[in-house]
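Late entry, written up from scratch paper. The run itself happened at the end of the previous shift, but nothing got recorded in the book at the time, so transcribing now.
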Amino acid sequence: MSSFLRPAVPGPHDPPALAGAPEPAAAASTATATLGRIPAQYRPISSHLAITPPVSVVIPAMNEAENLPHVFGTLPEWIHEVVLVDGNSTDATVDVARELRPDVKVVKQVGKGKGDALISGFAACTGDIIVMVDADGSADGQEIVSYVSALVGGADFAKGSRFANGGGTDDMTPVRKLGNRILCGIVNAKFGARYTDLCYGYNAFWRHCLESITLDCTGFEIETLMNIRVVKAGLRVQEVPSHEYLRIHGVSNLSAVRDGLRVLRVILKEKGVRRAARSAPATGLNSPRKVVS
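Output as recorded:
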């Protein structure tokens, strides 16, 4: 894995910089740091932390114009790019996104559903790390540093969990909580996983992981499918505690019963093809979708 984790400001035990290298205190995201005697591009996250890999954030959105100012406002300044997948919004979602972040990459969704939107967004990413963030304001973009830290620390897939120690949720009914617990237990028992949360959309992973899994579903069950297939592919998964907040504006399209049944069907289907999936060659993403900006 071509990344490293090191202080942005050298300490007494850090290796000396190359002659003529710029002072770290004045370095921007394109400044040059050194690891031993090998120069590497790094992007400062804080005064004590910097990374080399560029980070892409994928945000699927449909009629989320009112929520985008909050969502974009929580994103760290050091991320490489924001990919907004517009699900044919009838409000000013795209205009607001471009006003907030002129360099935003807008992908027009061809199909329907959250899974289809994410697949489209992943295909448009150029960063080494991809982060999935919902557009309803329920996720705190400042948590991205925890996900990235897990990845540069050795994980392939950083899975957000509302029920890991330090996580939480303000937006889950008792019925949804029970369903999530039952479905999570089934996945753990059937696939040898050790998840504390299953149906949560705040995750991050190295882009190369897409070569090991095939994403071929269109709805909210996309998160469950990814969680199962990364385990089946033998990838290293680390849970990251995350807090889910209430949606700020609008109404969610999530249906506990309908989407719960779709998740269950995915689990049962994946169990039936477990051995074949491990031996078959990975096909990765579907064909790239159209990027309009």
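The first helix runs from residue 68 to 74.
(Scratch paper discarded after transcription.)
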